[in-house]
Structure formats: C-alpha cells, structure tokens
Amino acid sequence: MITNTELEYKGDLYPSKIVSFMHDVDSVYFYTDNNVILKLTVLRDSLLRFRFTTKGYFSNDFSYAIDESHSHGYNRLVVNEEESYYQITTNKLICKIQKADLRASIYDLKGNVLLEDELGFHWEECYEFGGNIVKMSKASKDGECFYGLGDKATQMNLKGKRVENFATDQYAFQKEQEPLYKVVPFYIGLHNKQAYGIFFDNTFRTFFDFCHERRNVTSFWSDGGEMNYYFFYGPNMQDVVTSYTDLTGKPELPPLWALGYHQCKWSYYPESNVKEVAAKFRELQIPCDAIYLDIDYMEGFRCFTWNKEYFPDPKRMVSELAEDGFKTIVIIDPGIKIDKEYWVYKEALAKDYFCKRADGPYMKGKVWPGECNFPDYTNPEVREWWAGLFKELISDIGVKGVWNDMNEPAVMEVPNKTFPNDVRHNYDGNPCSHRKAHNIYGTQMARATYNGVKRFAYPKRPFIITRSAYSGAQRYTSSWTGDNVATWEHLWIANIQVQRMSISGMGFTGSDIGGFAEQPTGELYARWIQLGVFHPFCRTHSSGDHGNQEPWAFDEEVIDITRKFVNLRYQLLPYLYTMFWQYIEEGVPMLKPLVYYDQEDIQTHYRNDEFVFGNQILVCPILEPNALGRRMYILKGQWYNYWTNCLVKGGKEMWVDTKFDEIPIFVKAGSIIPKYPVQQYVGELEFDELTLDVYYKEGKEKSVVYEDGQDGYDYKKGRFSFVSFQLTGKEKELNIHVHKEGKYDTNYTKYKINFIGLPFEIKILEIDNEEVAFDAKSFKENQYLIVPKGFNVLHIIGE
Predict the structure, then answer these.
(1) Among 116, 422, 496, 533, which residue's CB has the most CB atoms within a 10 Å radius?
(2) What is the three-class DSSP state of 444?
C-alpha cells in the first residue's frame, strides 16, 4: 500500500495573512501568503462585489446572470491601511478587511454593523471532481429575518431554514420540499430596521443555511466554482430589491394580452377540442386571451412538428382562433428525438449541436419522444440555430408565444432526474461540465427561444414562459411555479411562491390555477382563481389525467365566481400594465409582501398571506375551506374595503367578513385606480372612456397610469402615455392635479370618475380654474362625474 500524504483529506482551509494589496480603479486586490486573492469591486456606493480565488489567479470572469447592458458608477472610493485591517469607504458604506485572515465586515457610515464574517471565506478541496467546495459564513444577529431565494415552498421568512438550489423536476412537490425548478441564489437580510442583500452568483449546486445549523450563523456554499457574491445595501428593502433587479436585468414590456387570462391543459387535442374550449369561453362570457397546446399537438412529441391527424391545418386553426381573440401558445421541450428522418435532429447532428458525454458520445436520455439528444444552449451558435427554428411556427402559422418545459433539464427513468455530471457544455467559450451548466440550462434555452420568437414576431412583442430558470432569466421569459397539486396547502404555497419570486427579480410569474396534479373541488378552484387573478401571470393549467379543470367543469356558482374575478382582472389591466411598467423602469416588484411594503412595522416580518398588488391594492386570499371570513393584517394607514367601501384604520390585525364570491381586498385611501371596460379579450372593444375610481383621503396621494399601443416597440421611442394624478383632499375640498408625459395619445377622450368616500356634497366643480356645470341630483345618486380627458386640475368644493 502506498500512502500519498499530499492527497489526504485536508478539511476546511482558510485564507492566511494578507501580504500585499493593490488598488486598481474600482477594485482592490488583497493577496495572502497561501495564494488566496480577494478582489473587492465597488460597483456603486451601496453595491460591493467579493470574488475569491485559492489558486493565485482568477479564471475568466463570465456570468449569465449579470445584465451587461446596465452601467455602474460610484461617487467615492477611498482605501486606507490601518494597523490590523484595510478600510474601503464609499458614500454609503465602510468595509473592513482583516489583515490576519481576509474576514470582512460592513458598516453604514454611522458605524452600525450591517454584516460581518463569522468564519468568512473557507474552502474544501473536492478530490472527486477537482476544484473546491467553496463556503462563506456570516454572523447573524438575534431577531434578524431573511427573505428571497425565489421558488421556495416554505414560509416567507427563511429564518431557521436550510435550502438547496438545484433545478429539479419535482412533480407534485410538497411544502418544504427541496430543491425545486428555479435557482435564484439571492436573499435579503433585515435587522434593526436596515436591509441588505446577498447574491451568490454561482451556477453549481448551492446551499443556504439561515441559522438552522448554528443559531447565530448564516452560511452559503457550493460544491464547485468560485466564491463570488454581491452585497447590496438598502437601508430599505425596496433599495435592495431594485439594486439586485438592476444588476440581473429586467424584461421588456409584454404585449397587454399576455397579462390577460390564459387557459391550458395537458392536453387540448384534436382541433375540435381546442375549438370547443375556445367557444365555451365566449359562450359563458368569461374573458380569455390565450389557449395552450401541450405536447400532443406534435407528431410523436417531435418539437417543431404537427400531428396532422389532430391538427390537419394548423395555420387555418390558429387564424380562426385569432379571429375570435385567442392567441395560440405552443410547448417546446429541449429533448430532440433520435430519428434519422426528423429534420431538426438531422440538422443538429450535422452541425454537432448536441451535448456530449465526457468520453465523446452524445448525451442520450429518455423523455416524452423516447430516446433523445439535447442541444447545448450554452453554445451561442446553437442558440442562434435554435432561434431560427421558430420561423414556421411564428411567421408562417401565426403562433403568438412559446412555452418551454422540461428544461431543468428533466430526464426520465434515471435516479437524479437529469443529465450525468460528466456531460460537457460550451458555456459561451468557457468549457465546463454539467455540474456548472445544469442550473442555467433552462435559462439559456429560454434565451434562445426568446431570440427566435422575437425575431419572427417582430414588430410585435414576444411572449415566452419557462419552468426552469436561474437569476437573470427574467430578461427573456415569464415563468410558472411548476407541477403543483390541487390541495389547500398548495394554494398557500402558490401565494408565497409568487410573492417571493416577485422580490427575487422574477416578477412575471404565476402558478397553475387549481393545481396541476389531482382534481380540485369547485370551492378550491374558485378560491385559487380569486388569488390567481392578482398574480402577474394568470393561467389555469392541469393534467388531463385527473379530470377537467375548465371553469365550467364545476357548478354554476363557480362559473359565476370565475367570471366575476376574471372580469375584475380585465378591468384592472391598465393598473396591472402600469405595475409592469414600473417593474421594468424602476425595478419595483409587482407584488409586494407586507415586509417589503413596510419593514418598519415588525408585525409584517412574519406575514405570509397578505400582499400588496401594485402600490395601492391590499389582497388577502382565502386559504381554507368553508370560510366566511378570516383574520388579516391591515397595513398602517387608511384603507377602503373594496366590496363595501367602508374605511378602516390599519396597523392592526382584524377579522374581515367575506363570502364565497369575495376575498378581502382593500384599496389605499387617496388612490386613483384606472379601469377598462370588461372585454372578452384584449383589443376586442374600442372605448371612449377610462374609469377612475377615486378613493377620498384627507391628505395627499399620488397615482399613475401607463398606457401605450399595447404591443410593438413604439413605446421605446417615446410613444407612451404616463399620467400622474396628485390627489389632495381637505375637509370640504378635493383637488386632482394631472401631469402627462409621452407622445402617445389614447383613443378614449373622457374620464368617468367614481368618487368613493367623499365626505361632502359637491357645491362647485372647476376644471382648469373654470367653473363647470354639473347635474347635482345625478351625482348624488351615482357618485360619478364624466369629464374630458386632458385637464390639468380638477377642483371640487363641498358644502
């Protein structure tokens, strides 16, 4: 027996003392005597990047997550050497690096500790795969809370949890199950009313421990790659989320129809079944904008083909659906059937575009078509080829959107449900194994799909949806939370998942309404619809194996509730579209957990159920059967019950009565909520009036409405309308000041202004300082005014 002591298990290794440092523009390099280098980069006064290497040099700096189009800049960067540490100072932060061991501590300018290393950076040599298992541990304070990390089926506050990030096909997952479909290694810490964020940009399998193993220690680690993380300083959670979203990127505006209601099932076929479903929506007057075709529309599950028996003339069918307002969305999976007669397979084979095992052969795995090979979407040449495959679907047939599924990547009949670790990837010129590429495979597929759909849909906007995603995927695609289950527990999970995704940069997300697996009761489906219409992506989807899940699969009461709430979503489309505009322009999440909305109020720190839809609508779903009401937390301030118009004072938990056809919804006092008339699909009606629901408040409140052509790219050339309403209420007076930006002129010419909670009768009405006659009797009965669009000041004097 020969013992090689150099290969003995060494355990955790640590940086030793700093022997030199170098300041180079925005970065400071620290070198230790055991070959560790820390590169600390100041991207903004409140944004620092920490990058470590243990080999004396850095590999190529490349990330799929970072939005390279976003520029950075800081106002101040000073480096001072003290006796035991180096100090880096910006206009927002002080960072100290200990000379003895590279441990870092970060403070605000008042000297308050924001985050400090416990053991700090350490590593373990990984002899099985080569490279290091890289680790970081931070000290955590009593009372500290943690949020974020995207797609997690657990409590909003992650304190005491340990989670894993490895994109996994988890059919019928359960509460607390790890890991799930998406990987968003970003979290927000909140302590002493100050928020910070950490983004661990490492695409290997990663883990986060929030005081689970050790009470006052938070740690994160990965089984490969670099210790490379970003620190975001608030002090408000809003600042942290916006900064992270800026770093990883924002989408372009979707077409307005993509924010409508969508209907999906595994599977709608043949053509007669698709037409029957579409016709039933119109018959029942339940608005719907999109219908989805799952894998059975293909010939033997071969991507980019059509089953001619089920769909003999897809172009005609898609055109006929479009005439009735339905956009057709089709599924495309990554597995390409091994079939020498199949044109997509032949092209990829000829160009050597499939992923390969380490010893040469193509990666082979079983999915829906049978044995398949899989394109390497980390190769830019493959992404370009893949994009070109969408010409027939989009340009010729008229499909309006594409749905990427099974792209974790999922493989059947293997224990780990995915590719073996030895599969090799191009990784945009940075060759690697699947250990590194796994978590971004789905994102790069969605990216290639986005590029293709955008190319052939132009001048219209593309619509993509993906199941698997890594940080930054929001630049290309929307998403849904995967194969959930028709249970009340999953309704609870869906509520939290979409809130969490929203503050994790991926706002355009929803769940399968009603549950994908199993069969919901009518009551559960109705309650899920009532939640789902307040999610940015709104789609019913189900497995046909478990029965029907269209609204009419239940009784008349459920049909009526579905219609009522889908109608409400269509009325609120201008409000929702404005939310999306603020998301892409300012990085503001569309759904706001209570803690995001008011972190100063400690009562919000552990709330799961309630959320703010946009900026001014508080929603609390009903998550239990047989409920005639529930307790909920009303945020500080004054809020109107949407159904009764009763005004309540917040800052407390209270019982709210409800019915089967209602959930608790409250509107912030002072809000001006825009509404469209109900349409069966976006663009069905031309209307001459925008409704404004004005909720009286004694004080000031600002509301905004964004509109454009609802599709296309003219909005990027200034052809949009962004209207700000400044409401000022007094005891016997109400003023609304209006300011418009943008070159777009909406088709409607007037506002119908509904007044809610007005505490006086109108004596005088002035528009732009001129008194206007109005029908006092009619107003007293109906509480609304019709006024021409384009005024600057509406002044109401009461008596």
Answers:
(1) 533
(2) helix
Tokens describing residue 713: 């790219």
Check if 324 is active-site. no
Closest CA to 670 of 635, 639, 632, 648: 639
- Catalytic one of 483, 610, 701, 707: 483
783 in Cβ contact with 755 (< 8 Å): yes
**Residue 200's beta-bridge partner residues?**
229
3-state secondary structure 152-197: CCCCCCCCCCEEEECCCCCCCCCCCCCCCCEECCEEEEEECCEEEE
Element (H, E) at 781: helix 776-782
Q: Cis check for the bond before 16: say yes or no (omega within 30 of 0).
A: no
* Cα–Cα nearest to 684, from 260, 284, 252, 271: 260
Under CATH, which number does the domain 686-798 receive? 2.60.40.1180
Residues 6+ apart with CB under 8 A from 656: 620, 629, 630, 631, 632, 641, 664
> CA-CA distance, 600 to 144, in Å (whole number)?
13
216, β-bridge pairs: none
Candidates 3.40.50.880, 2.60.40.1760, 3.90.110.10, 3.50.50.60; correct CATH number of 18-248?
A: 2.60.40.1760
Give the pLDDT score at 680: 98
- Entry field: residues in the chain: 799
Question: 18-248 with 591-668: one CATH topology?
Answer: yes
pLDDT tens for each residue of 601-637: 999 999 999 999 999 999 999 999 999 999 999 999 9
What is the rounded (10 degree) CA torsion for 149, 154, 155, 159? -60
Distance CA 205, CA 172 (A): 22
Residue 485 per-residue DSSP state: B
pLDDT of amino acid 439? 98
187: Cβ contacts below 8 Å, ≥ 6 apart? 146, 147, 148, 149, 158, 197, 198, 208, 210
* Nearest alpha-carbon partner for 405 in 483, 344, 505: 483
Calpha distance 158→445 (Å, rounded): 30
CB atoms within 10 A of CB 413: 8
Q: How far from 501 is each of 144, 254, 352, 480, CA to CA, in Å?
A: 21, 18, 36, 10
- Out of 3.40.980.10, 3.40.50.80, 1.10.760.10, 2.60.40.1180, which CATH number does the structure's domain 591-668 have? 2.60.40.1180
Say if residues 58 and 74 touch (Cβ distance below 8 Å).
Answer: no
Q: Which residues of the chain have pLDDT under 70?
A: 1-10
How far apart CA 433 and CA 423 sit, in angstroms, is: 6
Catalytic residue (choose from 144, 226, 289, 408): 408
Render pLDDT for 120-162 as a digit per residue (tens, 0 to 9): 999 999 988 899 999 999 999 999 999 999 999 999 999 999 9
List the one residue out of 558, 466, 570, 572 whose CA is nearest residue 514.
558
- Which pLDDT score, from 0 to 100, does residue 613 have? 98
Q: Is 9 exposed, middle or buried (0-12, 13-18, 19+ CB in 10 A)?
A: exposed
Query: In which residue are the tokens 């384009």 written?
Result: 790
For the question of residue 483 being annotated catalytic, the response is: yes
Among 151, 405, 523, 701, the active-site one is 405
Does 408 participate in catalysis according to the annotation?
A: yes
Burial annotation 494-529 (CB, 10 A radius, 16+ → b, else e): bbbbbbbbbbbbbbbbbbbbbbbbbbbebbbbbbbb
User: Which residue(s) pair with 52 in the sheet?
Assistant: 38
Cβ atoms of residues 110 and 121 within 8 Å? no
Across 569-651, where does the E strand assignment appear? 591-593, 611-613, 617-619, 629-634, 638-641, 647-649
Annotated domain spans of the chain: 18-248, 591-668, 686-798
